Amino acid sequence: MAKYLSTLFIVQPYEREDNIAFLSCGIALYLGRIVNHLEDMFYADPTTLEGYGAKVNMKHNVLKIDSKNKKIVVQNLKTEEIFEDTYDKLIMTTGSEVGIPPIGGMDNKRVLLCKSYEQAKKIYESALNYPSIAIVGAGYVGVELAESYANTVHDVTLIQSRDQILNNYVDKPLSDTIINKLKEHNVKVQLGERVSEIVDGDQLTIKTKAGHAYKADLVIVCTGFFANTDLLRGQVQMNGYGAIIINDYMQTSDPDIYAAGDSCVVKFNPTGEMKYIPLASSAVRQGTLAGINVFGDIRRYMGTQATTAMEIFGYTLAETGLTLKKALASGINADRVIYSDNYRPDYMPTTDLLTIYLVYDKDTRKVLGAQLFSKHEIAQSANAISICIQNENTIDDLAFVDMLFQPNYDNPFNYLNLVAQQAIAKEAKEKETKKA
């Protein structure tokens, strides 16, 4: 909350938990014993904010927002006192909550959710006592948890309702590759299995609508997130998923209310749509912009390509923009090429295979997305493609854009140049075939 008097202003955050700025994307690192202290996943603390001049109110739950009168109703969770406060400008950064699917038995103490600091502690402590774990949902969280538990010698079953894993991030051929890596590490991957009920017993029984049943000592449900925006429902415009709609300056339909992070939509640049894509990278940028733009339309939001990366069994998966399936579903005349070669010259002492899926628009030739997979660290290459999408570059631009050459790192043409040249060649061949 911010109150203004001439050039003096007061920044007053309200937080119902006893911690802030928890990086839930680091939970798998903690569970896999890569990071020893869960507390390392906090990237800020109340003391730091107070050092900037903010009046931080921890363990305070906002019960109601009255946007018409610019008032909020707050409860101090320590004293149980309820009071009113006012604001001139309000920034809504209430984040997201784990979606609880309509599955019978979700109230079982051995069925856990994964997002918050407290949930992560509970998962860690529970897993110490249970050798077999079932994970429901195979997005980023589910796949990272499966890897972490496989590496800590748990018996792991990964259950996914769709016909592939990571369906928001990769196309099916790359999904199949990653599934094979999971199976090589004894993770049992069950596709096309929508869970209907979890039944208690010595072991939990996970029943699916397909009529199958799987056993586990502990179940972790990771079926996605939804925007935590009930406080503003009916007071600002939201999309069908309850995410707050914002303009280019993080402003909602109420000019004195701004929103950032998992509580609001993002501008997804590959299609130009306003979509709900909860990511820490977007939250950090949007939060910063909201803090700047409460003083006026100062810095425009650039949107996102939803660029992400993960490490799985020594391989890096990085992706940005659209998959081919999602591009076609969006009505784009899209295609892709698949590049597969060593990332640097064969005469080097060692090298690693690199696979790139490059998705592009056949009509405009614009780069729409990419998926990269290799033992070599290729996450920064996904960032380079993200910039291409942001700047509406074409496969022709990417094919010959200046990139360094040094045998330690790549070939005379960088692999991003080469995959774009492959796309150009594919389009030229199709054009010649049509002429013939």
Describe this structure in words.
By secondary structure, the chain is an alpha/beta fold. The chain is 24% helix and 28% strand. It has ten helices and 26 strands. The strands form nine sheets. It has a five-stranded parallel β-sheet. A hairpin with a 5-residue loop joins β6 and β7. It is globular. The N terminus is likely disordered.
Biggest beta-sheet profile: 5 strands, parallel
Which regions are unreliable across 5 or more consecutive residues at pLDDT < 50? Answer: 1-8
**Number of DSSP helices?**
10
Going by helix content, strand content and strand pairing, the class is: alpha/beta
Globally, the shape reads: globular
Mean pLDDT: 91
Kindly, what is the distance between the CA atoms of the first and last residues, rounded to a whole number of angstroms? Answer: 67 Å
Indicate the proportion of strand residues.
25-35%
Calculate Rg over CA atoms.
24 Å
Helix content: 10-25%
What strand line-up does the widest sheet have?
A: 10-17-11-12-13
Number of strands: 26
From the structure above, extract its key features:
436 residues; alpha/beta; 5-stranded parallel beta sheet; 5-stranded antiparallel beta sheet; 10 helices; 26 strands; 24% helix; 28% strand; globular; disordered N terminus
Report a brief summary of the structure.
The chain has 436 residues and is an alpha/beta fold.
Q: How would you summarize the topology of this molecule?
A:
Blueprint: E1 2-5, E2 8-11, E3 14-15, H1 27-31, H2 46-51, E4 57-58, E5 60-66, E6 71-76, E7 82-86, E8 90-92, E9 96-98, E10 111-113, H3 117-127, E11 132-136, H4 140-151, E12 155-159, H5 172-184, E13 188-190, E14 195-199, E15 204-208, E16 213-216, E17 218-221, E18 225-227, E19 257-259, E20 266-268, E21 273-275, H6 280-293, E22 308-312, E23 315-321, H7 324-329, E24 334-342, E25 353-361, E26 367-374, H8 379-390, H9 395-400, H10 415-435
Parallel strand pairs: 3-4, 8-19, 10-17, 11-12, 11-17, 12-13
Antiparallel strand pairs: 1-2, 5-6, 6-7, 9-18, 14-15, 15-16, 20-21, 22-23, 23-26, 24-25, 25-26
